[in-house]
Amino acid sequence: MKLDQAKVQFLEHLKKRKRSPVTQEGYERDLAMFHRFVCIRANMEVELEDVREEDLQAYLTHLEDHRHYKPASLNRHITVLRSFFQFCLREELVPKDPSVRMLTFSIPSKERAYPGPADAEKLIQAIHHPIVRPLVELLYLTGLRISEARDLKVEDLDMERRRLYVRCGKGGKARTIPMSAELHSMLQSYLPRREAPVSPYLFSTKRAGRVAASFVNEKMHQAAADLGWKQHYSAHSLRHAFATRLLHQGEANLVHVQKLLGHTNVQTTSIYLHADMETLEDVLNKGWGGDAS
């Protein structure tokens, strides 16, 4: 069987497993890159069973040395290749899995920058695009992933019961998020003035359709620059800001935040625990009963 034919079968398998559209697109894109690489390397269309461990290692070297991929991006490609060849082995398309000895790269641990409540409000107010601004505000008030916000349809909003339905989150999982009074008010104001009222999607333009994630990040960077900030924030940083605000307010625990963020494992949610210097000083002062100064 040709490598390309096996790729088609694997992508069909992902679709049947109801993996999210974002996941399917990412796997298809990464496997297409790998397919092009091995075909150029062999100077011919490659049979699936002819792919060897050294081909995979050469591909990773190419990504690292020539495309300058960082460890996180390399690990994503490793995950895709492992999933693909494990599928091929289960389906008896190959006699053995050439990816079995692939090791992931270690990623230096670092605190992700995220805006505090005051800065988040300033950032939102500094965005003047009529679609991006309410989208960014929704991200901050719900903790949604940018892909989930882009996939929201008007029918996913229950304004009467104040519920927001994520139909297909990461891993194809659905969840329901209660609307805060602030979010409900913002949506009531936004819905009558949507730019593309005929589109089923909540955030879309007449010409381009759904707003691109890169465009949202671009507008956020522009707003930060307009505010004179050196620190720029991405759409994903608002997910951290949402989780951190809930945890710092003391009204929510990790399990509550886990449900809202759509995490399967609470350990994943713990990544969103951030301790700033002010919080650390308060903890020390309360613990030792003294003044940090």
User: Architecture of the largest domain in CATH?
Assistant: Orthogonal Bundle
Q: What structural class is derived from the secondary structure elements?
A: mainly alpha
Mean pLDDT: 88
Low-confidence stretches: none
Strand numbers in spatial order across the main sheet? 1-2-3
Task: Give the biggest beta sheet.
Answer: 3 strands, antiparallel
Task: Provide the gyration radius in Å.
Answer: 23 Å
Question: What is the CATH superfamily label of the largest domain?
Answer: Intergrase catalytic core
Descriptive account of the structure:
By secondary structure, the protein is mostly helical. It has helices spanning 3-16, 21-42, 53-65, 71-90, 117-125, 132-142, 146-151, 181-190, 213-226, 235-249, 254-261, 266-270, 277-288; strands at residues 157-158, 163-166, 175-178, 204-205, 209-210. It folds into two domains: 3-90, DNA polymerase, domain 1 (Orthogonal Bundle), CATH 1.10.150; 117-281, hpI Integrase, Chain A (Orthogonal Bundle), CATH 1.10.443.10. The chain has a three-stranded antiparallel sheet. α1 runs antiparallel to α2 (21-42), α3 (53-65) packs antiparallel against α4 and α6 runs antiparallel to α8. The protein starts with a helix and ends in a 5-residue tail after the last helix. Residues 110-285 form the Tyr recombinase domain.
